[in-house]
Amino acid sequence: MPSDTLWEIAKAEVEKREISENGGDGAEVCEKSVFFIGSKNGGKTTIILRCLDRDEPPKPTLALEYTYGRRAKGHNTPKDIAHFWELGGGTSLLDLISIPITNESLRTFSLVLVLDLSKPNDLWPTMESLLQVTKAHVDKLIMKLGKTSTKAASEMRQKMWSNMQKDHPDRELIDPFPIPLVIIGSKYDIFQDFDSEKRKIICKTLRFVSHYYGASLMFASKSEALLLKIRGVINQLAFGIDKSKSISVDQNKPLFIPAGLDSLSQIGSPPLSENEIGKLHAQTPMELWKKVYEKVFPPKSANTSKETRDPARDPQYAESEVDEMRAQKDQELEQYKKNTSKSWKQIEFDT
Length: 351
Hints:
By secondary structure, this protein is an alpha/beta fold. The chain has helices at 6-21, 44-51, 120-148, 150-160, 188-191, 196-212, 224-239, 264-267, 274-278, 285-296, 302-305, 320-350, and strands at 31-38, 64-72, 79-87, 109-116, 181-186, 216-219, 256-257.
């Protein structure tokens, strides 16, 4: 019996087609992976479809989804392959983060965090949960890699600093994310109508977090110009296309800041008075920015922000016939449990 997994079979089929399309010359095909995580209904699927030039309406992402794209380096050259993963459900399916990020894909893996700017109260909890879980998993893999190949692990650690110039004044003050990271603030068309002070706090906070992690930061909307910029950045992660050298730090315009081009001096201190900051008792700069941000945009309580962990109960996946049958079976199960409980009580009484 064949022991190959469905993934291994699909990968082998793609490689077979690539060799066939390129005249069987066996030229090397470069493969990279890009993992999209972020706010629920934040626009991750829309960005992926735009990057792949697919003109189709986005559908709700159920759990973890996969697609791929191909791009030729030049005439009569093999097409590079980009694997696109997307995690649905916001922060409700954190356990699935470890599935696409493996020892085999780690060194060619990039992360795209999409945050919904129109929901600022959910922004920090979503960002913090997803980045913490992803970082912990990647750090674990790098440590494991170091036990079998110290050279490979060392190269990964050096790569973390590749976007930061050696003479950058903030080198000793930041902690780069272990894999390339891009943070996208979506729904800028709604965000731009926010009060200017609120926009200022959100922009400065995201600039600090992005700079601290050595990440790129950019805002997106339905604007074709912004989507083209985002597409260029994603293509750079997926196919190694040249990076954009443009930059925009004006909070009254969509932010576009490639990794390593910002600085703490330009970002400035958190937008609170020194007296107020002193009362927050933060242990680290990241904790200070968190406290300042949540002072203005307090996270929703656990009850109101709790997302549906069971996709079968999520209203966006409703199917009347299936749901009616499910409800009937749930009732039958509850009745069975009650009858079983009564039976056991009767046995104990008779004894």
